[in-house]
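INFO batch 0412 | record 1 of 1 | parsing
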Amino acid sequence: MRRRPRHRGSAARGALAAAAALALVLVLGACSSASPDPRGGGPAFGTLASSCRPDRVPALRQAGVTVAMIDVQWAAAEPEAGAPDLGYLADVRERVATCTRAGMRVVLGLGLDNGPDWVLERPGAAFVDQFGATSPLREPDLVFDGAVRDAAAGYLRDLAGIVGLGDVAAIRLSAELGYPGPSGATTTQFWAFGDVPQGGPGLAEGVEPSPMPGWRPSEPDWQGAPMTAEQVDGWYAWYTRSLAGSVTWVSDTLRSVGFTGDVHVPLAGRGVLPQDRAAAVAGGLDGRADPEGALGYGLDYPSIFRTFAEHDARLRSLSPPSRLVVDYTGLDDDTATRARAASPGQETCRPGDTPESLAEAGLDRAAAQRWTIALARSVGLPVVAENPGPPGPTTGGSRFSDSEAEQLVAAARYARDCGIDTFFLAFEDQLFEPGSGIDVPAYARVIAGQPA
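INFO prediction complete | emitting tokens
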């Protein structure tokens, strides 16, 4: 499973990211998604990158694992335009059926960030920054480009028609939410400077073009007049609003092809703190006040979560109802290990946590998990979570993280402390890989609330 490198704590997301697409993971009790553990009212427990292999599923079920997150990749599912790979999709269908027959709820990851070449070869299909550079990973632009959205909608129709989504409890949209990551520029990169978002042809229906076409962050003037703080603020609000809108588009498209379960959006780190956003806007978005690299990713969570909350309310009003769910992807990340070292420890959720109370206590820059979960709760969004996993270029782990064995214990405790609906262990393979530090019996003890 490909996971985007995360921005967390004092470290920026330092590698190139797989982005613009979106992602989510929560659990639905009354709405046909993964339910909390019926044995004790705590979280349900699952695995990421689930294989649903017949030789593994019985041991996992015996251990108490009730949720499986299965990855699908758009590039593999539809290597040629209009020609889905029937063998690949049949394998996905069988994996869904295997886990479902075993009594596990299935969350299906769409892999929309991993677009096929025939999509990416279209002019304007990839993101372009303010310097004219194309994102090296060439993530398909589902934020602005109408042709890319049309292609993605065809892929979702294939999933519904060939794999079938009736046994899928929830859908995880893709890699972690955000525009592409840094690609070597010396300042923050913003990814809305292709022809389409700048007002050219091909803009997706209902999407706004740049409110100030031609203006680039850090430039003091626009159309011969000095930029005002209000204009800069309006531009950044458009940038983040467009990103959030791409999530609601995917969710609505899934509904149109017959999927009525929850939609999970994976989110990394704490995003842009309000005081950093204000300072960045005051500086004309010239790269200042971006301590964790979240600014260019567009991760202004306070505004994005408000959009999500409105969409969640709309999903709940439908028949059958569903939900938009935040999937926090760094439970027990390196910000948590540092916050845990304080006296007393400041890393875990506590009753009464709100964004305001954490900011007043100076804890908005402590453990990212505590801040982001409190922010989601403040607007009524449900939350699921996962640990970072072992250090590596495709995980969220770093050399400052706990070991995988330590993450297993600590992240499960945080899931309980924070009232998370479902905890997903990263990754299933780790449970079966000799030398990983964890195994199925250890996970079973953690699920049962016993020492690992």
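INFO post-check: The chain is about 35% helix and 10% strand.
INFO record closed
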